[in-house]
Specification:
Chain A has about 160 residues and is an alpha+beta fold. Chain A has helices at about 10-30, 35-55, 95-100, 120-130, and strands at about 1-10, 65-70, 75-80, 130-140, 140-150. Chain A is built from 4 helices and 5 strands; from the N terminus they run βααββααββ. Chain B has helices spanning about 25-40, 55-70, 85-95, 105-110, and strands spanning about 5-10, 15-20, 45-55, 75-80, 100. Classes of the chains: A alpha+beta (about 160), B alpha/beta (about 110). At the A-D interface, loops of A face loops of D. Bound molecules: adenosine-5'-diphosphate (ADP) (2 copies). One adenosine-5'-diphosphate sits at the interface of chains C and A.
């Protein structure tokens, strides 16, 4: 079982690094080309979410991403230190279109508007995209696990 | 790949052409651009996403923010997108109900709905 | 101080992953474009060396690469579990050109020829390339550290 | 990017055109190719590295192995390379003293030293 683990300071720039690594390893692990866009987006969502949580709760703690290449499947696990969003179970996101389209106050200024998208939105995107995904709350934090089928092409090359 | 942004005026509408990746790293730049446009009086925006090759929920959040800001002035924010992989994200999240999505800039410029 | 740590199973394929990550993070950390080829090669050498050592001594133990982005410098540290090659201090490699060009036995067969390049060759390449490099033997193994100048461009983006 | 290999015969020499990255992952393929050539009687090799964009010490080791194998049959292994970043690696390691390095395939084919 070949594994790559990446841990990174909670900065937006490193979400790109994580995406890049996940994509390269998924490709080499034999995930279908058709699925690579999905891997890229899902990993990006999981890592952005983790970075956001760490930035507000524990900016010094690294976010951890594990890439696990098994015989016929490729799994990405992203671990953050936060508790799982209480109310939203991924998949049953029910966006209020009218509320989203409601005007901002005219004096909103140039700060980001608060709470544009409900908590759990990122997870909902992942669960809408990835057939095999799961979120668990464990002692070390929340684990988002996403699995894709693969055909093994990364046999160790004898040197 | 980074984010590229350019804007131009077409009649009473403003077209923002976005290229590259809209993600947690670049979304703040797009947000600033939209805020600048609104605060300088551009309330009818067309965001051309044909050259966007990555969009995540941070990017969606910025687009929703832009919509709310133009709505504060009875304006509009229309998207131009025909790329399946980008459209998919709007569909999954139900945001197709929130944004008018057009197949070309011309269509978005003449739309009145 | 932004840091990315990658740990990977000792497989040649992951040396490419490590190179890819180091290159992406170095670029984003503001290392000059002119130096990126050097980063790519030096990181590749350090990781290839570590993978080789792990494969022969501890194939289950991951190789660790740390990318440390500081104000005006970017450092890559690669840690392997092996002891430092005793005889060759990096830089004073003295290749015997005649020995290298000496014919193989005609019945060498198709196995790799033994000992083509002396131990420490990879380190010598690194020390020939990278101005600021150091190798230390620590309790957890051998650390190869390489540092390049950078201008800070990866300030955290407020979200 | 992966490794690409192709071979052709030019008179009594064999040209191996290598492209891509020669590293710890792909070097075994190059080694096999060189061994195959030698065991099928090709002892005068020209390795064209103009399209190589990465070469590390594992790759150097394979080239040295190829040299030793052709030498076992009084053969030769010549390199074609003008790329500064690749030449640099030969220079740093002193391997410029071991391999004849030419500026073009033609030059390598007519060389006799
Ligand atoms: N500098 C980077 N660091 C990490 N990931 C990156 C970087 N640039 C691009 N990516 C990611 O890698 C993939 C390939 O992107 P591409 O734009 O071709 O890379 P680059 O701009 O470095 O040449 C994309 O999924 C993108 O999200
Ligand atoms: N699949 C990969 N995984 C890890 N690193 C890679 C991969 N492919 C290329 N690299 C490294 O990334 C850098 C960019 O290489 P490039 O050949 O353009 O990538 P790709 O073939 O994935 O499009 C090179 O330094 C190369 O060593």
């Amino acid at each position: 079982m070949a594994t790559v683990e990446v841990s990174f300071t909670a900065l937006p720039a490193h979400v790109r690094t994580a995406r890049l690594v996940a994509l390269a390893v998924a490709r080499r692990a034999g995930v279908d080309d058709d699925l690579l866009d999905e891997v890229r987006l899902a990993v990006g969502e999981a890592c952005s979410r983790a970075v956001g949580i760490h930035q507000s709760k524990a900016p010094e703690d690294p976010v951890v991403m594990r890439l696990i290449d098994e015989q016929d499947q490729f799994t990405v696990e992203v671990v953050d230190i936060g508790p799982l969003e209480a109310s939203v179970s991924p998949g049953d996101l029910d966006l209020d279109a009218d509320a989203l389209a409601a005007p901002a106050p005219r004096d909103a200024g140039s700060d980001p508007l608060p709470e544009l998208l409900p908590p759990g939105f990122g997870l909902a995107v992942i669960s809408g995209l990835v057939e095999q995904m799961g979120v668990t709350s464990e002692v070390d934090g929340t684990h988002v696990r996403m699995t894709w089928p693969s055909h093994d092409v990364m046999a160790p090359t004898a040197d | 790949m980074d984010l590229s942004l350019s804007t131009r005026t077409e009649g009473d509408r403003t077209v923002v052409t976005v290229g590259g990746e809209i993600d947690v790293y670049t979304a703040p730049k797009l947000r600033e651009q939209l805020i600048d446009l609104v605060s300088s009086g551009n309330y009818d925006l067309v965001v051309d996403m044909e050259n966007v090759d990555f969009l995540d929920s941070t990017g969606l959040g910025v687009l929703v923010g832009g919509l709310k800001r133009v709505r504060a002035h009875e304006g509009s924010l229309r998207l131009v997108c025909t790329q399946e992989r980008i459209l998919k994200i709007f569909r999954i999240t139900g945001l197709t109900k929130v944004f008018p999505i057009h197949a070309s800039v011309d269509e978005a410029l003449s739309a009145t709905d």
